[in-house]
Amino acid sequence: MTEFKQGLDKMQPAEQTHYLGTLPSQLAATSDSEKLYSLLTDYNFIEAKLSASGVQALIEDYDLATSPDIISDQKADQLKLIQEAIRLSAHILAADKSQLAPQLIARLMRFESPDIQALLAQAKHQKTPWLRPLTPSFTPPGGRLLRTLTGHTDWVQGVAITPDGKRAISASSDHTLKIWHLETGEELSTLKGHLTYVNAVAVTPDGTKVISGSWDNTIKIWDLETGQEIFTFAGDIFAVEAVAVTPDGKRVISGSWDGSIKVWDLTSREVIFNFKGHSSFVQSVAVTPDSKRLISGSGDNSIKVWNLETGKELFTLTGHEDWVKSVAVTPDGEKIISGSYDGTVQVWSLPEQKQLFTLGKHGSFVQAVAVSPDGKRVISASGDKTLKVWNLETKEELSTFTNHIAPVNAVAVTPDGKRIVSGSSDKTLKVWHLEIGKENLSFARHDDWVNAVAVTADGTKAISGSGDNSLKVWNLKNGQEIFTIRGHQDWVKAIAITADSKRVVSGSGDKTVKVWNLETGKEIFTFTGHTDWVNSVAVTADGTMAISGSTDTTIKVWSLETGEELFTFTGHEDGIKSVAVTPDDNRVISASSDNTLKVWSLGKEKNIFAHLWNVGVKNQLFTLKGHESWVNAVAVTEDGKCAISGGRETTLKVWNLLSRKEVFTLAGHADTITSVATRGNKAISVSDDNTLKVWDLLSRKVVASFTGDSALKACAIAPDGVTIVVAEASGQVHFLRLEEGKESLVISH
């Protein structure tokens, strides 16, 4: 126990809070650099301060020590890494302070500094059961990402930043706008009033008003300070796709789904002009710095330039091969930047009325473009989940930002040009350094969502399957990638491993099931017959059969010896999301989008009527009803007595397979449950709420949890009962160990 911890434990709670609040500033004021550095690298202090004062107060303590007058550069660098790690995890720690140890370990493990390693060693001494990361599987500090803002419950469609650079405003498909403090990441207020998707947002140049456009056919003007709605532009408006404010702050421009552009007087609240010239929806509008010209981008693949004084169309720019989704104007008013669904970012001369060049191309549609205040850089946001920064003079791609897990729909630059804020379909906003930080911090991962994981029975390897169409084989002991298996033509959705640990079975969006040699990575069989995505696969314990479940509503049973299809189970009314086999190899349990689970016979039971089952009832034994929405996942306990299922309802159901009844429900997740695994009297579940939970099936309680950076899609438990492998939508595979804490905790097996 550290000296700090011993002293703290002797204090009353009120004394502790005061002490934690004042000690860092006192040490900084007296330039006691050694004690200040020792305090800020002490896990006990970090944990206590987080608990007493919250994450932002903790982050601010590190600002006290960044002055070279107080602490040497080398030590200041160590403190910056710790501070940045805490900031990267701020949205997670604000929701669950118990995640401090795993967050620090996974973000800082790669740094060899003795002081950081000593901090992490302290973090491993937890009182209660917890999940310890075995590999550095989170985004580390030192990169471009500064922090993540969470709170929206649907896609973020638009972002604007106040002229003072202190606040960001986001527009979302969840029908709201949110105002954020950019320095602290705090959500300041939520603006409610729109009836459906809010697609666009802008801020007046004086920073007092927010303008929003929605598919509810209205434009709303809000007071930024109070969050109150001031008034609404309505009537003769079709679904609003874009809004902008003139730099003189006098007019609002809206672009609509009906192809029209309206110019409104912000004082009189009247329509000044109604531009009609586009033959398709208007996706984006921007105004030149002199407030004299308007630029619009449309679904008719064109850009139009309009005179805001006369109301006349000046000219049309053509060259994009698909929708023009976003337009921006350089600060000198000379160039137009456009982003299109054709994947390109193009630059146009406004005086010369022509295309100058193409900056580059994304791997998918370009959703948004922005220009830095100095006019030298262009930032583009894309459906390929990345942002790219381009040098407008050299046409060079400067950097790519990768941390969103879904299309990036919006981007804005702070007035000082130092940070950018992006909004995504992953429901988050992210704040990035535009200038400093390393671009790609390398660690092995998939290039798309990880949808499936499995562990070999001998406990030596883990296998993951991804939306990048590949499988990766990992060393379970150290989390190192051994090799990658390629061959599927679409997402790998499911993985199962034979009991001898020699073969892997994978199911894919390409409608096939493939069997691979795990030693060589060579394909052994391809099973064809499904007519839609294969979402789940399982293997019988004797290694003779593979079972696959598909969106085509069927379950197929295949011979792993001959490669033949043995039979098909039909009976579900919607797609199969998951399949599991009972330990005795007699039965298959399927989970479906029709809200049910079904139990089927594999025909192996010693029963004189066994041969009649396929004819009489198509092997279907019974149906388990109780879920009110899609069932995504099912697992069977090791004793074969119970099944555990989860889906869109956020709860897990435990079923007795003998009585065919629901025994109890496990509640605790806040979003769709994506995967379940069991071993002994424990179950683990992962969810789109970014969490993994370990459940004790006897006490029916959560005994440990882990929070990822994004949605968790699959999980598996190793034979040792304590090593857990988790698949994340970020492309990352987490390797965790269930640690006992003070109490003994092992998943018995």
Q: Which short descriptors sum up this protein?
A:
749 residues; mainly beta; four-stranded antiparallel sheet; 10 helices; 13% helix; globular; disordered C terminus
Characterization of this structure:
The structure is a single chain. By secondary structure, the protein is mostly beta strands. It is built from 10 helices and 56 strands. Strands 1-56-55-54 form a 4-stranded antiparallel sheet. A hairpin with a 5-residue loop joins strand 40 and strand 41. Helix 4 (43-53) crosses helix 5 (55-63), helix 5 runs antiparallel to helix 6 and helix 8 packs antiparallel against helix 9 (114-123).
Q: Please state roughly what percent of the residues sit in beta strands, choosing from under 5%, 5-15%, 15-25%, 25-35%, 35-45% or over 45%.
A: 35-45%
Q: C-alpha Rg, in Å?
A: 28 Å
> Helical amount among residues, as a percent range?
10-25%
Q: How would you sum up the global shape?
A: globular
Q: What about the largest sheet?
A: 4 strands, antiparallel
Summarize model confidence as the mean pLDDT: 94
- SS-based structural class? mainly beta
Number of alpha- plus pi-helical segments:
10
* Terminal-residue CA separation: 35 Å
Strand arrangement within the widest β-sheet reads: 1-56-55-54
